[in-house]
Amino acid sequence: MEDLDTASPAPKGSSKVMTIAALVVLTLLAGGGGWMVGGALAPKPLSVEEAKMIEEAKAAVANKKAKEAGGEEGNNKDEGLPRISTEANGVVQLDAITTNLAYPTENWIRLEIALLFKGAPDVAMAEQIHQDIAAYMKTVSLQQIQGPRGFQYLKDDIEERVDLRSEGRVTNVIFRTFVIQ
Question: Is residue 176 within 8 Å of 96, Cβ to Cβ?
Fold first, then answer.
C-alpha cells in the first residue's frame, strides 16, 4: 500500500507551460496577421497637397450652400446636365418621372432620364418621349422590375419605346436616377 501512497502524480507544470507558450504564439500570429491585413486594406494617408485640395473643395461646397441659403436664386435648379443642351453634345435631360406602379399601387417609382440625340435635340419629341415613358411606367408591376435582370428588361423596354418614338434620332437613353419606394 505504501507504494501507491508514495507514488507522486506526473507534474502538471510542463503542460501549463506548453499551453501558455502555444497561446502566446497564436496571439502573436493573429496580431501579426491582423496588422498585415489592416495595412493592406487601410487607405494610405493623404499627402499635404491632397488634404489641401479636399479642404478647398469642402470650402467651395460650403460657400455654394451658403449662397443658396442666403436667398440668391440662380438658374442652377439642375446642377448636372442642362435641361436642353447645345447642339454640340445633343443631350436632353427629361423632367423627373414620378408615378405609382401598376401592382402594388402603394409603391412609387422615380426615374430621371437623359436622351442623347443625333444632331440637334428636338424639344417636342423629347416631351412626347417623356409622356410615353410616364404612361408605360404606370403599367409596370414591381415583380417585373425586381433584381438586375428586371432592371435590364425595363431599360430595354424603355430604349425600344424611345427608338420607336424618335424614329432612330435618339442614340442613347441615360438612366440618371432609378428609385423605387
Answer: no
Helix (H, G, I), strand (E, B) or coil at 95: coil
* Distance in angstroms (rounded) separating the CA atoms of residues 123 and 127: 6
Share of the chain above pLDDT 70, in %: 81
Residues 116, 77 contacting (CB under 8 angstroms): no
For residues 79-100, average pLDDT? 73
Q: What are the phi and psi torsion angles at 33 (to 5°)?
A: -65, -40
At 70, which amino acid appears?
A: G
C-alpha neighbours within 13 Å on the C-beta side of residue 133:
30
pLDDT above 80 for 154: yes
Distance set, CA 97 to CA 38, 40, 76 (Å): 45, 44, 20
pLDDT tops 60 at residue 85: no
The three cell numbers locating residue 33:
496577421
pLDDT score of 170: 92
User: The C-alpha cell of 40 is what?
Assistant: 493592406
